[in-house]
Design goal:
Largest sheet: none
Strand content: under 5%
Order of helices and strands: HHHHHHH
Structural class: mainly alpha
Amino acid sequence: MHPFTLEHSLPAYRADFVLYGAASVALAAFLAIAGPRAEWTEIAAFALAGLAGWTLIEYVLHRFVLHGLRPFSSWHEEHHRRPKALICTPTILSATLIAALVFLPALFLGDLWQACALTLGVLTGYLAYTITHHATHHWHGDNAWLRQRKRWHALHHSPGMRPGHYGVTSAVWDHVFRSNQGRRRG
């Protein structure tokens, strides 16, 4: 398997969930065990900031990169054509971007604990996104939150609708930036 393949085999697709789940647990354990107790409140605040920040990162990436920047938009169009296919961002790409754009700048601007905590928040947000996105396309659960996310994401995939509904884990930024207007194209 090529590491930059967009359509994954089932084991490679599932590995993404396992790797990001394990990385989140390992990073949380590292912070809990090795992190200075006097800084736990600050560490928790950075982790929560990373988690909240993920929602904006998710929105910006989906709206402006996956729907506006080649070659990513052509890759994402394939997902829209075949929403049940196991198409996702290659793990090596997402992991490299998180390390380069979250961990390293946070380490440069702060310290190891802040960088790890911020990265933990973003990693956890990304994991929540991958699970939620998978669930919107593949699960048949009767959970009210999942039903709501499935309806929201279906609006994003609906042909003939104005572009919008970019948030997968949260609709907050669609409301803020008014990209939740689901009117038919006229």
